[in-house]
Amino acid sequence: MSSIVKTEDLTFDYIRRDEEGNVEGIITAVDNVSLDVKEGEFIAILGHNGSGKSTLAKHINAILYPTEGTVYVDGKDTSDIRNLWDVRQCAGMIFQNPDNQIIGQIVEEDVGFGPENLGTPTEEIWQRVEESLRAVHMYELRKKSPNKLSGGQKQRVSIAGVLAMHPKCIILDEPTAMLDPEGRKEVIRSIRALNDVEKITIILITHNMEETIYADRIFVMDKGKIAMEGTPKEIFSKVERLQSLRLTVPQVTLLAHELKKAGLQLPDGILTAEELICQLS
Amino acid sequence: MLRDITLGQYYSTDSVIHRLDPRVKLMGTLCYIISLFCVKNPLGYALCALFLCIVIALSKVPVKFMIRGLKAIILLLLIAGFFNLFFTPGDPIWQWKKISISKQGIYMASTMVLRLALLIMGSSIMTLTTTPNYLTDGLEKGLGFLKVIKVPVHEIAMMMSIALRFIPILLEETDKIMKAQMARGADFESKNIIKKAKALVPLLVPLFVSAFRRANDLALAMEARCYRGGEGRTKMKPLKYKKSDAFAYIIIFAYLALCIFLGRMLFS
Q1: pLDDT tens digits for chain B (268 residues)?
Q2: B119 and B45 assigned to the same domain
Q3: Which of A243, A262, B15, B237 could disulfide-pair with B60, CB 3.0 to 4.6 Å?
């Protein structure tokens, strides 16, 4: 499988300037990160606030350019201005706040916004809009105003909007942070379906560990560096390490960990309640 | 409480006028305004009023919505009527000390009021029968020729449609901030105007800050979705003229020509 997103020694500094433009301080948000994401993978990037995960995400969509190092999306260097629109079309991005990324006044118009920008012919736009809305199960609500939808539904509209641009990869920057538990479930279900059915590469950025259990690989970030890397099972088995990185370990995993410490015979890295029940009985 | 405000004044129904292309309606409104200033005799005014009545009947919009638009300018109508009535020189038919009403005064006052009323009703037909969306689309397409002289038509239309999308969101936010301030003892219900104005400052500041943050987020989201201005952009719902639109154009221009002709005829 070929790699879709690749970073080589990516470093990004936020430079803070005073009113005269003198450098007041430099904050290294992303520090020497090298990743390689293969086509069709489901990647999760975990980290607490200020760990640099959002900054990293913005590089993949060519919103930010590396201070040092290179980012390749589908083999194209993102810092080359000629690749800008190809990169953004290939790697779609979903942001945190569902209200601030919907442009259209009707659901279907918002989904059509991306293809319109790409210069897609009118009939094909309609076809793409229908496909995308069906993929996230929002087709019935296509004539509604986005203001009348719930948070989870709005976020699914945003996903459909990106999907209509036919990306190979979708980056989601904390898409569930502002949603209620029901909305979270809806969004995560849609993301997994896209990965399974449409074979779209997913890069999910989150601080909620429960959302990462379906990922193929997890990267844990801390202070701009990649602190841990591995499959969910590998990551979740290192409970102490995760807690030292200020991440909230899911209750089930924590319970299993405590039970094991107390002397019960249990394998490491239990992810779901069903798994724990199965192991206990 | 703020959520109840309805935007624009679109009246949702299905009629011949509703289905017309927004460009036709824009042009029609413009022609109607011109025609109002061309006519100079009772016959002309009758023609204008008749034309408006037919359009209102075709649009299926209840007349009370038209009257509602007039309420906003009732003061203007009264003032215009008053001054024309009392201060037009001519043959007096009623006199009391220095104040007099002349024949010409009555004629001027009534035509002025009629003209203004028709003007407002005529232009409200457009907003009543066209969704804000189609209106911006119509403006973009209809004023496209201005691009030649470097008027950013697409950008203006995009700004209008984004503003329309965000007004309900910002209203909701205002509501939230107001409630948060009220919970901490702010007084928005005071009758005192100065107090009221003072209470608005802590409301507007957070609202502006949040509006700018939203604008920033939205700009980022638009760029992430490959937005790069109007160049090379296709339309999901392109405006297309139908047969009825051509027919409407013919009627509008015939009407305008008739009005100009009537105005000329009686003066020559």
Answers
A1: 444 444 456 777 888 888 889 899 999 999 999 998 888 788 888 889 999 999 999 988 888 877 777 777 888 889 988 888 887 777 777 777 777 778 888 888 888 888 888 888 888 888 888 887 788 888 888 888 888 888 888 888 888 888 888 888 888 888 899 888 889 887 777 778 887 788 788 888 999 999 999 999 999 999 899 888 878 888 888 888 888 899 999 999 999 998 888 877 765 5
A2: yes
A3: B15
Same domain assignment for residues B82 and B208: no
Test A103 with B226 for CB contact under 8 angstroms.
Answer: no
Beta carbons of B225 and A112 less than 8 Å apart: no
**Domain-embedded: residue B230:** no
Which CATH code is given to the segment(s) A3-231? Answer: 3.40.50.300
- Give A162's contacts in chain B (Cβ within 8 Å): 225
Virtual CA dihedral for B14, B20, B25, B31, nearest 10 degrees?
Answer: -120
Check A115 against B161: CB less than 8 A apart.
no
A115: contact with B, CB 8 A cutoff? yes
- B-chain residues within 8 Å CB-CB of A82? none
Is the domain of B63 the same as that of B123?
Answer: yes
Q: Contacts of residue B161 in chain A, CB cutoff 8 Å?
A: 105
Domain that holds residue B212: 147-224
Hey, what are B129's tokens?
């029968």
User: What total of structural domains would you count in chain B?
Assistant: 2
